[in-house]
Amino acid sequence: MAVALLLLSVVAATVPMLGFLWLVWWLDRYDREPVGLYLLTFVWGAVGSITVAMLGSCIVELPILILAPGLADTAGAVLVAPLVEEPSKACFLLLLMFSRHFDNMTDGFVYGAAIGLGFGMTENFMYFADVGATGDAVGWVMTVVIRTLYSAVMHATATSIVGASLGWAKFRGPAAIVLFGTAGICIAIAVHAFWNGMLTLDAAANANGALLGINLLIFPFEVGFTALVFQVCLLQESAVIRRELREEAEQGRIPPEHPAIIASWWRRGQSWWVPRGLEHDSYVQTMTTLAMRKEQFRLTGDDFYKDDVAVLREQVDKMWDKARAAA
């Protein structure tokens, strides 16, 4: 039984997280992230961040073990784990901020969720394998359900908050990055600490699962609020596309109805509005990138983004020249 549960632990830890990973990527409707970079972010969560967190936990817990060994388990779950694990996950987001694919709150949210899901996958396997080694099939199933639907999602939720904060601040200067990055990591730590704290207190107070039940009831509202934030990010992205491309329509570069179509996740995926000779996917992607670069230049005044805008406009002009020739 123990061997079978160990093998099942691999499947139970990986398959749901990969499913969540695909879902988050798919929900990024307007400017989906490169698959390679997205998977690399997931791998960091699964390997890099959890390695850093384990080393950091050993260092931080050592004084507690020496000075107050009776409090080590409680402090480790409620204080040490959130304080160490959240920065270990979020540090990779600081590197991603230098990528040209990290454009806004939506991108930060998506990359943060990927890191959290990777971390949750590895941590889940550790827990599943540990319970599976006892041969307790019922306990294993309960652990799989709770950790898959709650604990792993908590990691994705917490890190996505940090990513969204950094995504909003990226083009608004160093002070904004420090301020909103700090706020994001504090919120992530609080979410993590509350989840772990309720579980720990339930056991410490012999609450017979009452606090666990409250935790399970409250957490979906936290996830729902985070999902609402994601929708706001998408709406903001749509507004940027509509606003920045309106100028292109006024200049005669594109038809006047195209900004609204490209800003609509439903209509942009259809092909009826694209004239013959204009490659649909390439046109939509180029126009979306143009809108993002225009906003980034407006926020920063950086010539790097100004040059990008000029190059993208030239690409659009060539697309339309080709389409007119085909017509």
Sum up the structure in keywords.
10 helices; 2 domains; 327 residues; mainly alpha; elongated
Give a description of the structure:
- The protein has 327 residues and is mainly α.
- The chain has helices spanning 2-27, 35-67, 72-96, 105-132, 137-169, 174-204, 210-250, 258-262, 280-300, 303-326.
- It has ten helices and no strands.
Provide the fold topology:
Blueprint: H1 2-27, H2 35-67, H3 72-96, H4 105-132, H5 137-169, H6 174-204, H7 210-250, H8 258-262, H9 280-300, H10 303-326
The SS-based structural class is: mainly alpha
Sheet with the most strands, sense and barrel status = none
Portion of residues in helices? over 70%
**Unreliable segments of 5+ consecutive residues:** none
Compute the average pLDDT: 90
Overall radius of gyration: 23 Å
Distance between the termini: 68 Å
**So what's the overall shape?**
elongated
What's the total count of β strands? 0
Could you give the order of the helices and strands?
HHHHHHHHHH
Strand proportion, as a percent range, falls in: under 5%
How many distinct helices? 10
Number of domains: 2
